[in-house]
Structures are given as C-alpha cells and as structure tokens.
Amino acid sequence: MFKQHISITVEDESIKTLSIAKRKCIFLYENNLKIFGWYSYGGCLMECRYNLAIKLCGCSPHVYPQSGECTFLS
C-alpha cells in the first residue's frame, strides 16, 4: 500500500524582509538571471552552463542566445 503525504507551505509577509541567504530561497520578482525573464532552478542551471561556455570558448552553444560567432576553430 502506498501512502501520500501532502504539505502546504505558506509565506508570511515578514519573510520578505529576510535576506536571500537567510531564507535560502528567492521570490520570482527577485530574478537575477540575464537570459530568462523569471527565476527557476532549471533556468539557473542553464544560465550557469551558458556562462561557463562563454568563459571557456568565448561563444555560446547554438541553443542559447548568441554572443559572438562560434566555430569549431574558435
């Protein structure tokens, strides 16, 4: 037999005064991503990969917005 546990998390307005480091989460309006208009864990990971590609080879993979011309020789 399977059991399912459901929990609901509700935020109190006062939590917004805590720092991001203290509450260990961000609100959608606190987005600091440059590629995506909203924050998500997946978007954060994709942007980290994008930034690493820019740092290592100076261009972005073809599925991301382009920044410079990317060739196999670059």
Automatic annotation (TrEMBL):
Family stated for the protein in its record: Belongs to the amiloride-sensitive sodium channel (TC 1.A.6) family.
Assigned keywords, A-Z: Ion channel, Ion transport, Membrane, Sodium, Sodium channel, Sodium transport, Transmembrane, Transmembrane helix, Transport
Name of the protein: Uncharacterized protein
Statement: the UniProt record of this protein carries the keyword Transmembrane helix: yes
GO CC annotations, alphabetized: membrane
Coiled-coil blocks: none
Membrane topology qualifier: Multi-pass membrane protein
Pfam families according to UniProt: ASC
Location in or out of the cell: Membrane
GO molecular function: sodium channel activity
